[in-house]
Automatic annotation (TrEMBL):
<dbReference type="InterPro" id="IPR036052">
    <property type="entry name" value="TrpB-like_PALP_sf"/>
</dbReference>
<dbReference type="GO" id="GO:0009088">
    <property type="term" value="P:threonine biosynthetic process"/>
</dbReference>
<feature type="domain" description="Tryptophan synthase beta chain-like PALP">
    <location>
        <begin position="95"/>
        <end position="326"/>
    </location>
</feature>
<feature type="modified residue" description="N6-(pyridoxal phosphate)lysine">
    <location>
        <position position="118"/>
    </location>
</feature>
<keyword id="KW-0456">Lyase</keyword>
<dbReference type="GO" id="GO:0030170">
    <property type="term" value="F:pyridoxal phosphate binding"/>
</dbReference>
<dbReference type="InterPro" id="IPR004450">
    <property type="entry name" value="Thr_synthase-like"/>
</dbReference>
<feature type="compositionally biased region" description="Polar residues">
    <location>
        <begin position="323"/>
        <end position="356"/>
    </location>
</feature>
<dbReference type="InterPro" id="IPR029144">
    <property type="entry name" value="Thr_synth_N"/>
</dbReference>
<keyword id="KW-0663">Pyridoxal phosphate</keyword>
<dbReference type="InterPro" id="IPR000634">
    <property type="entry name" value="Ser/Thr_deHydtase_PyrdxlP-BS"/>
</dbReference>
<dbReference type="InterPro" id="IPR001926">
    <property type="entry name" value="TrpB-like_PALP"/>
</dbReference>
<keyword id="KW-0791">Threonine biosynthesis</keyword>
<feature type="domain" description="Threonine synthase N-terminal">
    <location>
        <begin position="7"/>
        <end position="86"/>
    </location>
</feature>
<dbReference type="Pfam" id="PF14821">
    <property type="entry name" value="Thr_synth_N"/>
</dbReference>
<feature type="region of interest" description="Disordered">
    <location>
        <begin position="322"/>
        <end position="356"/>
    </location>
</feature>
<keyword id="KW-0028">Amino-acid biosynthesis</keyword>
Amino acid sequence: MSESEMRYFSTRGGSETLSFEDAVLTGLAPNGGLYIPTHIPSLPADWQTKWASLSFPELSREILSLFIPTSVIPSKDLSQIINTAYSTFRSEKTTPLRQTGEKEYVLELWHGPTWAFKDVALQFLGELFRYFLERRNGKLEKEGKEEREELTVVGATSGDTGSAAIYGLRSKPSITIFILYPDGRISPIQEAQMATVPDENVYCVAVQDSDFDTCQSIVKTLFSDKEFNSTHRLGAINSINWARILAQIVYYFSAYFQLPESARAEGAKVQFSVPTGNFGDILAGWFAKRLGLPMDHLVVATNENDILDRFFRTGRYEAGEEVSSSSQAPETAAVNGSSDGQQATPSSGSSVKSTHSPAMDILLSSNFERLLYYLALDTLEIPSGDAEQDRARAQEHLNGWMAELKKNGKVNLGERIKEAAGRDFWSERVSDGQTLEEIRKYYQLPKYGPYVVDPHTAVGLAATERSQKKAPNSYWVTLSTAHPAKFSSAVELALSAKQFPEFNFRETVLPEELKKLEQLEKRVHKINGEAGVRELIERVKKGEKVVPGEGKGSI
Ligand SMILES: *Cc1c(COP(=O)(O)O)cnc(C)c1O
């Protein structure tokens, strides 16, 4: 394999390749595809010994530099970006591994500023944006030019992504961030996390009399308004951005090195179970495997929005029957759909179901397209051996599938693809009832407990349990994607006072840092409709000081 300088190309075709910088700043390819690397790099021959005692930031630098040429970011700068990004984490190990059974572990990914796993990627992406913009503007200044590059990030959220994005971008020069959410329809703790951030470049926009779909469609309209978009240089920070996937590869390696030595011995098997929505987190795991991390399988753990589970069982990718209607659309799907037109609209009239694990309530998983590309490539009837030719053929397959998906809301990928996918993935669907049951179980865990887990993590744990018979004697790592305090309603429902009178959420689960938010001032811009949002962005970008309505509230 040639190890020429790494570039990025679109899953949907075209022979054009982009630098890492352009791929990150562009996000979604103009042809609707997602950027992937021109080749999968090789690990250094001695990585198992050389990397074993590295800190998380050091490990991150080793892995990321395989994908980011030094001509794009010099090593010293990359180290600095990474160190700054992860200095905000509360745990010394950044993503610590916690033992929950004899050979069972939970990888806690929520020790960052917003207590959910999206911080791992968004703290890094924020620093990366700052670095690229500073460098571009420094160059303009040197050339004696007047103009400066600025980024206006606009996104809609129903909770998690919004706060992680705000914490990733707060106080970054040349970046302004507007996060839209339906007024009164997100949890108080989620609103407090966003609205108490005092930085001048952060705007929390509560859209009045709206639901999530309305916020999403406002963002979509702004992005597709060519003049508005280019005037303000709109930026999206959704999970289809390659830098987000890249940053997440690191914790799979980190988990591996935190396991006991016996897990790394010859013949030992390690399995990872991943609560999955948009397929970003688990795709990073797949890249880790592809790079050479010895893992046996990745378990796709879905909630009742189970399009992925059905794909891995049947080879058919389809939105499915109408399950229920919900006004609270998923932020994962929506942030993508709204800001970059990524989500195809299925014609079958299906809709997302609201579950106890809302961050995984999705109709279609946008990052799944990246896996589909590799499945197409790996199953080419007669590979030519010529990288570019094979790439073009895989892109052609993928384009056909995406077109069919867009047209009919479903696509049958067939046995070959299903089998190829089955080599790396198992899957499980976990119902709401089972999710609550799992939270109760871990609260009552003997020996390694009690352990209060959030509902997304509970989905992953249930999937682990069910998969165990497929590979006895394996080591199991379940990814924990949020702190239980972020999803208090499900946790309190599972551990109700009637059944667990001794359980006190405020005392034992809610961290001091989150309690303190109650005391802080909230800055929320209450806005009416698209025109209001447009006006706010225009006034802010003109340099006007727009004062938000302020007030205190309790969590
Ligand atoms: C976003 C999110 C997920 C889903 O991750 P994907 O990368 O979209 O699959 C799971 N759990 C929590 C808490 C999340 O915020």
